[in-house]
Design goal:
Layout lengths: L8 E4 L2 H20 L6 E6 L2 H11 L6 E10 L2 E10 L3 H4 L9 E8 L3 H9 L4 E7 L9 E5 L4 E4 L21
Parallel strand pairs: 1-8, 2-3, 2-5, 5-6, 6-7
Antiparallel strand pairs: 3-4
Length: about 180
C-alpha cells in the first residue's frame, strides 16, 4: 500500500547552490555542443528561466541571440488553467530558428506538470529543453535536468524569497494577480 503525502514540502535553494547547479549544467550543454549539437539561441522562460539563461550564456561565452519567452501557468502557488504564451520571442531571433528549434535551448527553473514545455514543444519541437529541477509529472518533457523534486514540493528560489527567509514572499508591488 502506498501512502500519499498531501502536505506541501517547501525546499529553499540558496543563490550559491543554484549558481553552482546552473554552471554544472552549462558544462553538460558545452559537452553537447562540442559533440556536434549546434546551439546558437538561448531562450529563458520568463521569469524563472531568466537567471539560468544569463548564467548559461556567460558560461558558453554567448553574447547574441539571448531571448526570453513569457509563459503563464501559475499565479503564486496556484496553478492556472493551461499554459499560455504571453510574450513571444523577438521576430529577429525567431527568423534565426532552424528546423523546429534544433539550434536553440529553452531554459526554465522548474518543470512541475510540464505544461510550459508542452506548450513550447508545439512551436519548437526540436529545441533542447533544460531545467534545473523537474517533478515526476513533467519529467517526460525535459531533455536535461539537474535534480528531480517530489511532486508535492514547492521549491523556493532565491529570487522568490526574502534574504535568509525560507518562505516565499510577494513582490514589492503586491501579490500576484
Amino acid at each position: 500500500m502506498r501512502l500519499e503525502n498531501k502536505r506541501r514540502l517547501y525546499v529553499k535553494v540558496s543563490w550559491n547552490e543554484i549558481h553552482r547547479q546552473m554552471r554544472e549544467m552549462a558544462g553538460w550543454v558545452l559537452e553537447l555542443i562540442e559533440g556536434g549539437r549546434q546551439i546558437d539561441i538561448v531562450v529563458g522562460v520568463s521569469r524563472g528561466g531568466l537567471p539560468f539563461a544569463g548564467v548559461l550564456a556567460r558560461e558558453l561565452n554567448m553574447r547574441e541571440n539571448i531571448e526570453t519567452i513569457g509563459v503563464a501557468s501559475y499565479r503564486g502557488e496556484d496553478k492556472v488553467s493551461g499554459a499560455r504564451i504571453i510574450k513571444d520571442i523577438h521576430p529577429d531571433i525567431k527568423a534565426k530558428v532552424r528546423n523546429g528549434g534544433e539550434n536553440m535551448i529553452i531554459l526554465d527553473d522548474l518543470v512541475d506538470t510540464g505544461g510550459t514545455f508542452r506548450e513550447l514543444r508545439k512551436i519548437y519541437p526540436n529545441a533542447l529543453y533544460v531545467t534545473i529541477y523537474s517533478k515526476p509529472e513533467g519529467e517526460d518533457l525535459v531533455d536535461m535536468r539537474f535534480l528531480q523534486a517530489p511532486q508535492n514540493s514547492w521549491v523556493v528560489f532565491p529570487w522568490d524569497a526574502r534574504d535568509g527567509d525560507p518562505e516565499a514572499v510577494d513582490p514589492i508591488s503586491g501579490a500576484e494577480r
